[in-house]
Automatic annotation (TrEMBL):
Cytoplasm found in the keyword field: yes
Organism: Marinitoga hydrogenitolerans (strain DSM 16785 / JCM 12826 / AT1271)
GO MF annotation terms: rRNA (pseudouridine-N3-)-methyltransferase activity
PANTHER family assigned to the protein according to its UniProt record, in alphabetical order: METHYLTRANSFERASE, RIBOSOMAL RNA LARGE SUBUNIT METHYLTRANSFERASE H
Primary localisation category: cytoplasm
Binding site for S-adenosyl-L-methionine: L72, G103, I122, S123, R124, M125, T126, F127
Function, as annotated: Specifically methylates the pseudouridine at position 1915 (m3Psi1915) in 23S rRNA.
Quaternary structure and partners: Homodimer.
Matches recorded under CDD domains: RlmH-like
Residues in coiled coil: none
Xref: SUPFAM superfamilies: alpha/beta knot
Protein name: Ribosomal RNA large subunit methyltransferase H
Location relative to the cell: Cytoplasm
E.C. numbers: 2.1.1.177
Amino acid sequence: MIKIFVIGKPKTKFIKSGIEQYLKWNKKYDRVELIELPLSTDLNKITSEEYKKQDKEKFAKYYLPDVFKVVLDERGKELSSIEFANKIEKWRIGRKNISFFIGGPLGHHEEIRKNADFLLSISRMTFTHEMAVLLLLEQIYRAFKINNNEKYHY
Ligand SMILES: C[S@@+](CC[C@H](N)C(=O)[O-])C[C@H]1O[C@@H](n2cnc3c(N)ncnc32)[C@H](O)[C@@H]1O
């Protein structure tokens, strides 16, 4: 099973409908679940460090040792789709879940990055959290297709 945790509910209409579409398509291959965690309190009322700490605490109960934790971050490692598909196969060996973590407007707390099993960048550019969810879901779908030798990936 694959779980995607995101801080902040995706709201933009076309992105939401893309997310729903890929969640539906991915069902053919495995359970892929999106878990939306609430945004923290008003950014103007707390420091950015405190804000990131609040986000870290929201991830804490899902940040478990028996789960392979992939943290999405633009400072992470970039992979080709084929490399990502291979990693997905490898990360699942002996484990029930792979969990992906997508940060809020300020990004991740340093500790979340430090304790990740893999820090994944989808590009050196910065995307909104909701765009990151959509792009990740498409790459997961592509990985399923690649790993099943199905036509989609060129
Ligand atoms: C608006 S971005 C946060 C940007 C923040 N300034 C930072 O330094 O991380 C929100 C989240 O989307 C995801 N994200 C955005 N762009 C990404 C990229 N190029 N690669 C991987 N994840 C990305 C990350 O999980 C990030 O925490």
